[in-house]
């Protein structure tokens, strides 16, 4: 094996004890949190740890604390989606920042397809992480159930679909946010309001459709068109809607990326926004909103904050707070009015 | 604790043995690779595993195989860079695909700053992964040395800087590629060729500067300007170069993103490409190249293939192939000629 794998030069616990002039047991206690050790001794040990560059053997440490100091973040999307949709970056950013405050390592996993499920299950049950955070889950695959029955506590981003999976989750008020978007278009006097929906197997998309129908109980089904949360699908759906109902005067898209795709298509066709067609998105994603022309009216959700909340909920589960298991959080949304509607 | 954390319903090794009508030891051997077990028995056990939905206890399994079935991929960049520079997606894609063929879980880690180093060191030494792949390393921080001395074998993407860190690596021929780019500009009759360099603390950037100087031994230092591999830095450097040497007639940028930033700035100033200024990039990154106007001439490196090679090299290290420790790989580059030069 190569030289770098021997680790021969790493200082031991004994070396730290000798350097600090304390017992091995004292060093061990300090390394594992310092409970019951006098302040002066704690300082001595910490100084020795720093001077020697000692790194605790975490495998041994985890036998004492029963913690690995790592949490898995599982995104149920293929890698090309993760890197092209800024939603994931924002959610991961919130999670990453909050985990840092808990001195916990984030390990990111994603799912190219069902072929990856067994490996992820094995990893989760392998004693490598303290818990799992999962998002962008789809109701038609077995990943949510697999995570739910794994040996580590989990928190989902987004309400899980169907019955049987009872994992605490953090979500925004998708239905209320959608209602507000559509009511705003109604208040502007729009009468033929279309909806570009997200994937039917995700509850966020389902809830936004429900919010649209809450306001427009008798909406023409031809005004509802399916996308998949990508920019391209927004453009495609917009083209199809114009074909079906050339008289439409407003569009509510279930996320900003699809709204941006719709705006591009409308511009190509020479249709003026908002004069001819008003457009509202969902997310208020800087990376998308800053580039649209005209500026996009949208429903804001605090994606980074939701990531942080997922971590806080997981940490309460890890601390054994029983009530946390049923303490899902729904955050509020707000309409941000800009030029497009 | 919530219900999903108990795992009470998970089938045991004993249940699989009973279901298959074989001994517990046979199941264990099959689960760990099946060496020395008759084909018919292997099939029986696999069928029982599938029917019961058995998941091996990987912690126990790893005591036998001494493998965790997981590899850490460490990107030495903050999260916003990872999600905005398509280089990382391409490298990770190659790594991900190759790890899948080895049924190994990829866990992605990144570094927001030096504050994360100790946690990453602890994670690597914690017995959670079989090895580490690291890229976008910077010579001025302690991460490369920290990974090199960790308890797991590592392979770097990109030649490590300085002395002391003797980890096998995969890199492309940065210097040769840069030479080819600059020679191409010379062959077009360009006489005042500028270079927008990458960060000085990365060997890829250093080697590309060296390649530029190999061809233009007496280049005016005013024609060399520093960027940081981001699009914005390419635009800034282009503006500065035009200020210093308004007569420049070509630019070689050390990556495509900076070349795209330079092209945008040239367009803003009404400077024609390639008539007034020819531009060459480095990488041949689809996601960047498809959007530039005019199409970008660039030095192609096989980023995804390099990711795959990193995994192959690591797997040889894990198999104990001693010669792999010094078997770094340098891949070839090639010039792709398009409209910009």
Topology:
Two copies of one chain form a homodimer.
Chain A: H1 13-20, H2 24-31, H3 39-52, H4 58-65, E1 70-75, H5 79-84, H6 86-101, E2 105-110, H7 117-124, E3 131-135, H8 143-148, E4 154-157, E5 169-172, H9 174-187, E6 193-197, H10 203-215, E7 224-226, H11 231-244, E8 250-253, H12 256-268, E9 278-283, H13 286-289, E10 297-300, H14 303-318, E11 329-331, E12 334-336
Parallel strand pairs in A: 1-2, 1-3, 3-4, 4-5, 5-11, 6-7, 6-8, 8-9, 9-10
Antiparallel strand pairs in A: 10-12
Helix pairs in contact in A: 1-2, 1-3, 2-3, 6-14, 9-10, 11-12
Structure notes:
The structure is a homodimer of 341-residue chains. By secondary structure, chain A is of the alpha/beta class. Chain A folds into three domains: 3-65, lambda repressor-like DNA-binding domains (434 Repressor (Amino-terminal Domain), Orthogonal Bundle); 70-172 and 304-331, 3-Layer(aba) Sandwich (Rossmann fold), CATH 3.40.50.2300; 174-301, Rossmann fold, CATH 3.40.50.2300. Chain A contains 14 helices and twelve strands. A six-stranded parallel beta sheet of chain A has the order 2-1-3-4-5-11. The radius of gyration of chain A is 25 Å and the shape is elongated. The termini of chain A are far apart. The interface between A and B is large, with 65 and 65 residues.
């Amino acid at each position: 094996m190569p030289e770098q794998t021997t680790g021969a030069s790493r200082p031991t616990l004994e070396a730290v004890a000798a350097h600090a002039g304390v017992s091995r047991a004292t060093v061990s206690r300090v390394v594992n949190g310092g409970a019951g050790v006098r302040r002066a001794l704690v300082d001595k040990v910490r100084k020795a740890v720093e001077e020697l560059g000692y790194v605790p053997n975490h495998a041994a440490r985890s036998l004492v604390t029963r913690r690995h100091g790592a949490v898995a973040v599982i995104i149920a999307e293929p890698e090309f989606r993760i890197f092209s949709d800024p939603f994931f970056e924002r959610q991961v950013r919130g999670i990453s920042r909050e985990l840092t405050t808990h001195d916990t390592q984030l390990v990111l996993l994603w799912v190219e397809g069902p072929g990856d499920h067994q490996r992820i299950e094995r990893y989760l049950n392998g004693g490598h992480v303290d818990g799992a955070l999962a998002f962008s889950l789809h109701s038609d695959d077995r990943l949510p159930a697999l995570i739910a029955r794994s040996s580590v506590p989990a928190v989902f981003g987004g309400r899980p679909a169907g019955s049987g999976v009872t994992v605490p989750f953090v979500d925004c008020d998708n239905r209320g946010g959608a209602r507000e978007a559509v009511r705003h278009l109604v208040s502007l006097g729009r009468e033929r309001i279309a909806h570009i929906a997200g994937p039917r197997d995700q509850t966020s998309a389902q809830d936004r459709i429900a919010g649209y129908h809450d306001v427009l109980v008798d909406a023409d089904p031809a005004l509802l068109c399916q996308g998949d949360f990508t920019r391209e699908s927004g453009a495609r759906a917009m083209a199809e809607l114009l074909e079906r109902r050339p008289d439409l005067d407003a569009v509510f898209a279930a996320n900003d990326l699809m709204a941006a795709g719709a705006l591009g298509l409308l511009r190509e066709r020479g249709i003026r926004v908002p004069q001819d067609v008003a457009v509202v998105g969902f997310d208020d994603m800087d990376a998308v909103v800053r580039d649209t022309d005209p500026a996009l009216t949208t429903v804001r959700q605090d994606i980074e904050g939701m990531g942080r909340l997922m971590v806080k909920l997981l940490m309460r589960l890890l601390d054994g707070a029983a009530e946390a298991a049923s303490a899902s959080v729904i955050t509020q949304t707000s309409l941000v009015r800009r030029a497009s509607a």
